[in-house]
Amino acid sequence: MALHVGQEVWKAMKRAEMSREAFASALKISATKVNHIFGNENIDTGLLLRIGEVLHYNFFVGFLQDAAPADGAQLAGYDQKEVAKLKVLLREKNRLIKLQSQTIKSQEDIIAALEKSEGL
Questions:
Q1: How far apart are CA 84 and CA 76, in angstroms?
Q2: What is the DSSP letter of 16?
Q3: Would you say residue 71 has pLDDT above 50?
Q4: Is CATH 1.10.260.40 the classification given to domain 5-65?
Q5: Could you state, in order of their start, the residue ranges of all structural domains in the chain?
């Protein structure tokens, strides 16, 4: 089944609770151009990328869902690799946050001890 990109853009705009006027303003285009986008089955990929940035939505995922099973298998492997990388990054981030919290606590203890010794 072919994907009607303009309709998908309209749905994403509605999910984002954005008005046509705000959408047009964010894209720096006219309301007429917005209506043209909604009516088109196909949209320039550069424009679609800009639209996705404005709406915080990845329209290209919809195209990948229509891919052949072999492509889907490759995509699933790619996603698993990305998930694994993100998990490592998340663990590192959490470790650094914990270290930062410990550092702040130590600094607060030092400040309190200094203030107490100086009678502040």
A1: 12
A2: T
A3: no
A4: yes
A5: 5-65, 69-120
Q: What is the pLDDT of residue 59?
A: 81
Integer-rounded Cα radius of gyration of the chain: 24
**What number of residues does the chain have?**
120
Q: Nearest CA to 54 among 31, 24, 81? A: 24
Give dist(CA 114, CA 27) in Å, integer: 55
Q: What's 26's DSSP letter?
A: H
pLDDT score of 106: 94
Write down the pTM of the prediction: 0.52
CB distance 49 to 56 below 8 Å: no
What DSSP line would sit under 43-92, residue for residue?
Answer: --HHHHHHHHHHHT--THHHHHHTS-HHHHHHHHHHHHHHHHHHHHHHHH
Q: Which amino acid type is present at position 33?
A: K
Take residue 25 and report the two structure tokens written for it: 């303003």
pLDDT at 91 over 70: yes
- State the chain's mean pLDDT as an integer: 84
Task: Give the pLDDT mean for 78-97.
Answer: 84
